[in-house]
Model the fold of this input.
Amino acid sequence: MFETIFVDAANWLRNLLISINLSPFVVEVFLHVVKMVVILVFVLLNVMWLVYMERKVSARFQCRVGPDRNGPYGLAQIFNDVAKLISKEMILPTHVNKKMYLLAPILIFAPPMAILAVTPMGEGMAAVDLNLGLYYFVAIAGINTVVVWMAGWSSNNKYSLVGGMRAVAQMVSYEIPLLLALVGVIVLTGTLNLNGIVDAQKSAWLIFTQPLAFFIYFIAAMAEANRAPFDLVEGESEIISGPYTEYSGMGFAFFFLAEYANLLVMAIMTTTLFLGGWLAPFGWTFIPSWLWFIIKVYFVIWVVMWMRWTFPRIRIDHLMNLAWKFLVPLAIANIFVTGLAKYFIGI
Amino acid sequence: MGEFIAFIILAVCLLGSALLVVTLRDIVHAVLCLILVFFSVAGIFILLNADFLAVVQILVYAGGVSIMVVFGVMTVQRTQIQRSNSANSRFLVAIPVVFGTFLVAAITAARNIWTPANVPVPENDIKHLAPILLDNYVIPFEAAAILLTVAMTGALLLVKEVKDSGNKS
Amino acid sequence: MDLRQEVYTLNLGPQHPSTHGVFRVLLTLDGETVVDATSVPGYLHRGIEKIVEDRTYAQVIPYTDRLDYLAGMLMNWGYVLAVEKLAGIEVPERAEYIRVIVGELSRIASHQIAVGSMASDLGGLTGFIYNFRDREYILDLLEMLSGSRMTFSFMRIGGVASDITDEFIGKTREFIDYFPKNGIEEYNNFITGNEIFQARSKNIAVVSREKALDMSLSGPVLRASGVAHDLRKVRPYSVYPHFDFDVPVGENGDSFDRYYLHILEMEQSLRIIEQALDNLPDGPIMAKVSRNFKPPVGEAYAEVESSKGILGVYVVSDGTTKPYRVHFRRPSFINLGHFDEMIKGWKIADVIAVLASLDIVLGEVDC
Amino acid sequence: MATSLNPTYFIFLSAALFAIGVYGVIAKKNIIAVLVSIEMMLAAVNINLVAFNKFFTPEAFIGQIFAIFVVTVAAVEIGLGLALAIALVRKRGTTNLDDFDWLKW
Amino acid sequence: MVNQNKDLLAKIAARHPQVEIAENGQIHVPVNHLVDFMRDLRDNFGFNYLTNLTATDYKDYMTVVYNPCIAEQAEMLHIIVKIDRDNPQVPSMVPIWGGANWQEREVYDLLGVVFTGHPDLRRILLDSDWEGHPLRKDYEWETYREK
Amino acid sequence: MYGKGLLKGLKVSLGWFLRKNVTENYPDEMPNLPDAFHGNPIFDYDKCIACNLCVTACPNRVITLETETVAKKKVVTAYNFNMQYCLFCGFCQEACRPGAIRFGKDFELTKYKREDIKIKFVKPEQVEKKKQEVLQAAAEKEAAQKAAEAAEKSEAKATEKPKAKAVKKPAEAGAATPNNNMEES
Done:
């Protein structure tokens, strides 16, 4: 019953709408709007939870307690944070490029939302079952760069500018190993459809058949999502807050939350592509598929946080060297090996 | 009907942002509008059942080319950015030329009687594209790859050489 | 037209998360590479040297705490040593031992900040927190003795303010047992051994032996360049000749050596404390110093090895109850003088790392 | 597939986009604006190609293949064009195309 | 710390008759002989490390104090130079010991001693438009402490 | 091997993730402070003998002490402790032989108003009471010993007078020279 709860809900809604004699076109449009709203709510809830989780997890790693003053276990801290950020003034410094400065925080949420629309979060639970899902993910992930650059450039602050430049350099460089690592996945699964990729992992998760690709993908995705040790874009000990230095109030809140939205997207894609998506390990199907998905996603997020609170930040030239001199050749070798294996063994 | 509405929306979006690209005073804003143009084109492609091309459009143009242009603007533009995209005196010539081009194309298109082959574009177009691209057109494909490599090398050389001579002066 | 147009200046500070206080560096950058740098200190200048001209000799002591507030004991020590030398006061041996114990504890606490801030400035905040966790033990110990956690004002001209108790000795021994295993080893595993950390600090901003001597650098910054110049060994003061310890010396003079010496020195400090606790003599803790203390006319200059380097105190007396002139030779100040040379040609991120490896305290730099 | 759309719409659209691009190429002072306009013209061409592909040879995919090559060429063009622009600007310190009126540099 | 090595002091006294060595080991050097003396200390006596440099205002004259020492050895000298208070000028030690750079700037800032030949003699701790030199004894200032 | 250090670091932080936190829940668990702690200043009016030693010992001129001579005995009429300038060095506590001024363990010394931080320890009624007591004691003493001990009285006078003089002088000098150019950051 729990297994299909969301699919059933969608079908019920569709049947309801059809039963009141709406045209199929209108029904589909309405259903998509509903799905978008659900994804929006899903992202916002997760992001708010992630803010709290990061604070708690980092506290645990640093032998502290973390927020525990507001509500039980400090859970009300989430709402207090958001309320504080909303109620603060969004300062508009004098020499900013106004249109871009105000547009950037609005646009920053678009790419993660767009990606989440195609990810299957449970059996048959993708808002849009896109044939080119994986390719689409790569394409949309690149858009983020522009928005971060907009924020950095329009702020008219040198720290922001340096941050924006770093964002562009880092994200463009890591797009390439990311893409190349995914080629191995595509070769093995023979599909670009995310549902298809999950289905193809029924025998063995791709993390076991493509460990190298997973390694490259994981590093590149962390760099794409600006997570430590690749958080050079923010690099709070060097360039204050990078592109977000000048933002305050809501503007800052949007960037701050988008950071976690990107983390969520990164974890979701890792889960989908390498950890078997919503598939239940050991045949434990008594836990619904979407719950398995959430568990895996949060495990990935926890690992990322673990790394963030352990490692120091890498330097920009090391970062570039890592991408171009280490990850790209490794990814190409991986493609080659995968291709050979596929050709000769025919996995 | 739905397709028509989508077409109208996309066309308005496309032409509007394209006009903004050539009229906005600030080159950076113009480039951001260019990204909107590319997204609209991608939308048109989806309308034309070319999903793969739409994603290529986003990946190459919106993700790659626009970033390159943005970078170009940043390295090139040193004076005030507000008036960086002004028109020169030739716009008086340009307007008749533009209208001429448009009219010729429009009239030719309107006079022609199209007989569309009423066959739907196959789903999952990438499965059909790949064999054509890698069997029938493998030589142009490789040529394109070489072209890209040559262009990249050339671009690097151009930028680097000037940097060296700049150091000397 | 030349490429100089691509160079831009960046004001790093005075309000910046990683300048350890209020300190400004005017960076001229080409992309992310530092072309030129100018240090601008002075944002925390409180005029302590002027203030203390209007205080009696004893009243100066709380002000010295505020120089290097991370190692207040050593700052106290430098000052009282100079005054004792000026007035020719013999300090009882027990007081000297207590001074050594609290001084070395203070040195460990200060080095922990150096190690931790190096980690946090490279982006690993957790290393910083781990250092603070263990520093708490030392602060508790010193608090038990002096009543304050940072600005101790514990030393007096001719001795120390209070005697150490058995409870203090017991807890210090506990700390000596605890620290090498749980503290130092953990820092080595967590910070020193980390490859990213090493890549960020090894071979960065190398200072040659000659340059280090020429620029009058001192403390771990000097010793990282291979100069074994530790006043506790080369010109021993107090009861340091009684103790057996080593002076760790770096090889390359890079950021990593400067950082790693702090950890090695913590181990040596622990050794000294252990020996001092074992050989603690009985006796008074204060020499006879009159309440209306007036040293003879003259001047004296005394140096101690503080956690940041050589702290020199120059005191001139005109025979009244107030010092005529007090000058502090602050190690951070002089170490920072070489900073702009060190960071040339490195990236912005390295500027932060090098500043952290210099281990400055702005209260001391600006005096 | 009876669609309410027919090729004329797309030809009109691409003609309009192409015309805007032509205007940009002729009238813009800034070298980067000109490059951007050329990109728009190429996009207009692509729309045409894909539209013809859909309406006339849906199963041969000739139009889409051609569009892919156009995308490649466009990427090459913008890359080289920007490199040239940067080189020129470094040499001459201006982005104004009207100032590039010498034959050697 | 004043050096106790009598041999060294005797050697210095023999080489430089102009300097005057007090009983407690403090060395008084005339200003015009300072550069030669210091250079000789560094080159021939091995004093390669200037730990301290400061000055004092004595109302009718000023002294500049130098404490050079030898790295990894115990020797340290206490050198006092007496200068005119109205026209306080001393040759800069930066060419001999680079470490004098910021210390001389500090002394200039707080006491107004001009170090001739210093590469970059600007105020270091105080604002560049600050008036007067605070550590001079006749410096007047307002108190900001509320009553 | 490359990566070994990274794994070691991960191991350390994971260890702390699984362990109990070492921090204290501060407002719930108050820190266990040693007796020597320098917290809030506490003044015991009855113990104060108005010797002025704390005033002279204080490096930052935090304490002002006002006295009034009632029946040849000094009565403290005001003991003001300007805590915003206090360095918590404990010199006043050390100087005070009778233990009238000392530091407690309360370290939460923030105040809402600037005036609140200038502590006025002596209340007028205390002064009045003390004055009455002194007068009464003096009267009693006078009544009891008026005829008898003339020599003792002169001796007391001799010891008390120069002491008061010596104490007062530096305080005056301190007030006369304007010196505090300190903007503590």
About this structure: Chains B and F do not touch (no CB pair under 8 Å). Residues 163-169 of chain B have pLDDT under 50 and may be disordered. The helical segments of chain B are 2-23, 27-47, 51-76, 91-111, 125-136, 138-168. The CA atoms of residues 14 and 40 of chain B lie 5 Å apart.
